[in-house]
Amino acid sequence: MTTSADEELLRRAVAIAAHAVTLGDAPYGSLLAGPDGAVLAEAHNTVRRDDDISAHPELKLARWAARELAPEVAARTTMYTSCQPCGMCTGAIARSGLGRVVYALSTDQLVALNPESGAWPEVPQDGPALLAEARLPIEAYYRR
């Protein structure tokens, strides 16, 4: 359930996305707000500019939060983002311990507006394999 305060911060994320376009960057913007609604950090997509496929604003903010915020603070934050986070960003958000995400445009809505956005191919994966060998470094690390 979103509130009017959520909508105001979400509008700011959309404005960040719009500003990114004026800079020649892709139209995605995000911000991270503390429990009191104060903006802690902002970012926009710089995939093309940085020649970095991981330069999504949600990932940048999740990494920032993991580095800069205590876990109990991160858990009380909300990320506001112009589009629903992709799988890569969703994983980073979960690992960073952020408390909530509010987005303006769903992935399905994005693909309807720009069909190329949903044109990622499925990559085959094979495994698991070599359990006896692969478990050794894992066990060594976690037994410390």
From TrEMBL:
SUPFAM superfamilies: Cytidine deaminase-like. Gene3D superfamilies: Cytidine Deaminase, domain 2. Residues 4-121 form the CMP/dCMP-type deaminase domain. It comes from the Bacteria. Pfam families: dCMP_cyt_deam_1. GO terms for molecular function: catalytic activity. Transmembrane segments: none annotated. This is tRNA(Arg) A34 adenosine deaminase TadA. The lineage of its organism: Bacteria, Bacillati, Actinomycetota, Actinomycetes, Kitasatosporales.
